[in-house]
Amino acid sequence: MKSRTLGSNGPEVSAIGLGCMGLSFGLGPATGHKEALQVIRSAVDRGVTLFDTAEGYGPFVNEELVGEALMGVRNKVQICTKFGFAINERNELIGLDSRPKHIREVVDASLKRLRTDRIDLLYQHRVDPTVPMEDVAGAVADLIAEGKVLHFGLSEASESSIRKAHAVQPVTAIQDHYSLWMREPEHTKFSLCEELGIGLVAWGPLGQGFLTGKITRGMTFDDANDLRKDFPRFTPEAMEANFKVVEFLNDLAVRKASSPARIALAWLLAQKPWIVPIPGGTKIEHLDDNLAAADLELTPDDLREIEAAFSTIDIKGAPISAALDAAIDR
């Protein structure tokens, strides 16, 4: 597996990481515990070193899974997790909470679930407008000074919030929704990352599965644990229109002796050397397909063809639900 450095002063990580959320939460029924452990451990065997989770995934169960899976190889990997939500006694996310006292409580609990003594990269999951960003960054700086956290990150934060945080505690990486069909970070974050030396970790790099070509016409997302049921881009009408994306990727993949997922991930890697995508994967065959993208070289002609094709496709529907979008700091 090839490696990349997250930003100018961040850790060296595998060029493709593993987003672990979908093993427990968010994209349909949870993967069986034994199989989920095998997926994470197989990713390690294949050279993945960057593993992404959060207390809010489950809540809590995904951190526990990641901790169990990686405890035997802890010094070979980087574990990323997140704080920022209020969670009630019924394990329901009920709002945002980035008060410094709460951040410390979350980190101590996450360390126990992850079976480790430090978090390699700690993100604020969503910006809490009631807590000054300087206070958030200061709380994380204290945890870094204590050795409980090694690097600070922000997820879906605005340029203003990132600058305020970075002035107190350097931000190693931001995590944003970025893929071939979700291009907003190019306009809002790229120049900032270049200026401040910050890496970008791309979540949803395969369009919640759509860019893999494995989602077929007529497929529905009715499971209560599948967030896509509320995503406008996944309504039957929008999906039918958006199959033009899949048709193009399938055609290019055939010509490149590759797969749509590899094309989509290789395109991300070709955008900037400090971008690291974190596709999910609930089966080992997903890993084998996704991770091969690190060795797929898209030529300048390939990249121009992809750009030209997507410029003519009118992608229908918002990429996430209105409720999730409302929590993004813009």
UniProtKB/TrEMBL annotation:
Keyword Transmembrane: no
GO molecular function: oxidoreductase activity
Keyword Oxidoreductase attached: yes
Keywords, alphabetical: Oxidoreductase
Domain NADP-dependent oxidoreductase: from-to ranges: 16-308
Matches recorded under Pfam families: Aldo_ket_red (PF00248)
SUPFAM superfamilies: NAD(P)-linked oxidoreductase
Gene3D superfamilies named in the record: NADP-dependent oxidoreductase domain
E.C. code: 1.1.1.-
Enzyme class, first EC level, given as a word: oxidoreductase
GO cellular component terms attached to this protein's record: cytoplasm
PANTHER family to which the protein is assigned, alphabetical: AFLATOXIN B1 ALDEHYDE REDUCTASE, ALDO-KETO REDUCTASE
Protein name: Aldo-keto reductase IolS
Record organism: Achromobacter piechaudii
Gene name per UniProt: iolS_4
